[in-house]
Amino acid sequence: MRLSPGSLLARVTLAPVVAVAAWMLVAFPLLCLGQLSPLTGLLLGVPAVAAALALLPRLAPETDDTPWWPLLLVLLVTAAFAAVQLAYHSEQLVIRRDAASYAQYTAWIADNGFLPIPQQRELIAGDDPVLTYDSLAYYQVDDVVWPQFLAGAPLVYTLGFWAAGLHGMVLAPPLAGALAVLTFAGLAARLVGARWAPLAALVLAVCLPQQWVSRSTYSEPVAQVLLLGGLVLACDALTRGARGRWSAGHTLALAAGLSLGLGLLVRIDALRDLLPVVAFVGLLLLARRREAVPLGAGLAVGAAYGAVAGFGYSRPYLDYLADSLNPLLLIGAAVAGLTAAGVLLLWRRGLPRLDRPAWLPTALAVLVVAAVAVIALRPLVLTQRGHGDEATGVYIGQVQQIEGLAVDADRTYEEMSLHWVGWYVGWAAVLLATAGVALLVRRTALRRDPKWTLVLMVLAWTVTTTLLRPAITPDHPWASRRLVTLVLPAFVLFAVYFLAWTRRRTRDGPQPWPGWLRTTVAVFGAAALLLPTAVTATGIMTYRMDVGSIAATRQTCAEIPAPASVLIVEPNTASKFMQLVRGMCGVPTAYVNPPAPETVHRIIGEVHARGRDAVLAADRAEVLLPYLPPGVEPTHPFDVHTDQDPSTLMKPPAGAWRFNGDMWIAVIPRP
C-alpha cells in the first residue's frame, strides 16, 4: 500500500523518539551490568531499535489530505540544520562546564562499559592521604569516582564514539539536535497542521540556543527527542483510541509513557516537566479512557530507569542538588497522591467542567495574559539575588566588569527570564504565543480542542515554572540551556498555532478576507517569527569551540608511556584535565595536595616502586621544574588556543572569547 505524504510525515517524525527510547531501554541495563560494548549493543540494542521502528511508526494515524511539500520542507529543514551544526561542531573535552563533562562520561562508558570509575590508587601510592581523585563534575567516593550527570545522553553519544572514536562522539550531538527538530515538526503537524510544520521546524532550527546546544555534548537535544516525542506518541495514542483488550492505541500510549519517563534518564529536572502527565493520567481515568493505564504504566517504568540512574549512578550529584531536588520530590509525591485522591472522589461524577460558570473559560484566558504580563514586567520592580554559591558570584562579578555593568555579584538575573525568550525568538513570538495560549486555554476549557490538553498542561506548566525560577548561572548562551528543552519549543508552537488559527478565522469566518490579504498576513507573521530569531542566531555563526582538542588529547596520550601513573601538581590542571587523562588516556591519575617538592618526590618513589614511570602534569612548564631531576625536560602536548563561548548578562551573545588550554607534562622514568 502506497503511503500518503501525511502518513509518511507522521511516521518519519515518530522514528527519532522510537529509536532513542528503544536504545535506552536496552543500553542502560547493559551499563548497570557492566556489559555495555559494541558487541552487546549490536546483539541486543540494534534488534530492539529495529523492532521498535518496524512496529510503532506504522501505528501512527493515517492521513491523506496533506500535499508533498510540507514533508519535503520538513526534511530539508532537518537536513540543513544537521549540516550547519556538523560544520560548527565543537570539541569540548577540557572540563569547564557541562559539555566536556558529558564528553568524558561518554568516552568512559564507550571504552569501558561500566561504572563507577576506579581510582586505581594501588598503581600510584596506595592510600596515601596527599592524593585526591576528584575533579570538576567527577566525585571521589571511597575508592571510586562517580560522574556528575545522568547516563541518558552519554548512552546516545556512545554510538558516535563506537562509530568513529572521539570525532564520531562530537558529531553525534548535531545529529541528535536535528532529530529533535524533526520530532518538533511532527508535534506541530499533529496539533497545528502539516502545512504549518515546516515553519515551526524552521523557527526552532534557526533559534540560537537550539543550534548552540546541538554543537556540543549537552543533554538537551536527547531530552527534547524523548519529551517532545513522548507528546507526539501521546497525541497519536489519543487520536487512534484504545479499544478492546489491546490495540494500537494501547501500544502508542505505553510508548508515550515510556518515552516521557525516560526523560528522567537524561535530565533529573525532567521530574518537574512530568508532573502534569501524572495529573493527565488521572483525567483519562475519570474520562474512562483506556489509554490511561498503559500511559501511566509506561511513565512509571521510564521514571524507574531515571530513578536508578540518579540514585544509583549519580548519587553525589543528587546530594549536591538536595536543596532543590528534595522539595521537588515532595511535590511529585503530593501530585501523585492528590491525583489518586481526585480520581477516587470524582469517579462517579467524571471529568470536572471548566465551562461552568460560562464566564470561567474567558477568565482563564485573561489570567494567562495577566501572568505573562507580570513575568514580563518583573525587571521593572524586582532585582533577584542569591546564587547560593560563592564561586558563581565571583564569576558573575567578573562578567559584569567585562560588560561594563555595575558589579552586583549576588544578582541572579532570574527576573529577566522572559526577556531571554524575547532575545532568542523575538518579542513578536512572545506576543503571538501568549495569544495562542490564551485562546487554547479558553477552547480547551470549552472542550473544543481536546487533543491539546496534555501538551498544553505540560508546556504551560514547564514554561511558567522555568520562567519564574530558571535556577541557572545567568550568563549567556549558558543560561539559554534552561529554555531549550521545552520552553522555546512551546513559544514557537503556540505562536505558529495562533498564526494558523488567524488564517483559518479570516478564511472561514462570517466575513472572509480576500486570499491575497490572508496570504500577506501569514507571510508577515512568519517573517515576524523568523527574522528576529535569525538576527540573534548570527551571534554564534562565526566560531567553533575548542577546535584542536581532539588532536591535543591524542598527542598527550601518545607522550605518556606505558606503564605510567600521572601526578598532577597544580589545582587548575587537576580540575579540568584529570578525567581526560584518566579516561581518555587510560592511565591512573591523581592530584598531589599539597604539592610540596618533598611530597611529590616521595610519591614519585612510590610510583617507581610499583614498576611504573611517573608523569608530572601542570599548566605551565615552570611549575614542573622544581620536581624534575637533571636531564628531564617538560613537554607541551596539550597546546590549544582557540575560540570558546562568550558570557553575556544583559544582551544576547555574539562572537567568541578566547580559550587557552595548556597542559605540560614531564616523564620521570623508573631508575
Automatic annotation (TrEMBL):
Keywords: Membrane, Transmembrane, Transmembrane helix. The chain crosses the membrane at residues 12-32, 39-56, 68-88, 144-164, 170-189, 246-264, 270-287, 294-313, 325-347, 359-377, 421-441, 453-472, 478-500, 521-543. This is Glycosyltransferase RgtA/B/C/D-like domain-containing protein. It comes from Thermobifida alba (Thermomonospora alba).
